[in-house]
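Work Package 4 report. The design task specified in the project plan requires that, given a folded chain encoded as structure tokens, an amino acid be chosen for each position. We show below one input record used in the internal validation round.
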């Protein structure tokens, strides 16, 4: 099995964290290895803002969540285990399905959409 196929279950789990927010966001990619959502148009930034994505990479699956970059205080309560999977300021990388960490990402994503929704920087959702 190729690494991309090994990562499909991880990708599907991470994609499913974002899918419930489709009605309020714009799907900008939905392929077998990439799923991405944008927020509404932002007057401040004069463009639609990236919200999040799941992407199969060569050595792992990445989960990007822009609200944690825009609002770093969202990260103050994440577990040390989840923090170990962080790469940069808004990316989490996984090689395997991690149910407990994915549950934590569900909650972090929910908090992120709430902050995104109420922020003047990101427009109205």
């Amino acid at each position: 099995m190729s690494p991309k196929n090994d990562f499909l279950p991880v990708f599907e789990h991470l994609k499913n964290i974002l899918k419930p927010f489709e009605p309020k966001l714009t799907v900008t990619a939905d392929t077998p290895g990439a799923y991405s959502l944008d927020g509404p148009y932002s007057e401040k930034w004069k463009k639609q803002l990236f919200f999040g994505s799941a992407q199969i990479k060569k050595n792992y699956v990445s989960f990007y969540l822009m609200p944690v970059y825009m609002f770093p205080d969202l990260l103050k309560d994440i577990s040390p285990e989840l923090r170990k999977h962080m790469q940069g300021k808004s990316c989490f990388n996984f090689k395997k399905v991690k149910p407990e960490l994915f549950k934590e990402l569900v909650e972090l994503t929910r908090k992120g959409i709430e902050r995104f929704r109420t922020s003047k920087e990101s427009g109205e959702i």
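The helical segments are 3-6, 8-18, 67-70, 80-83, 99-118. Validation will be extended to a larger panel in the next phase.
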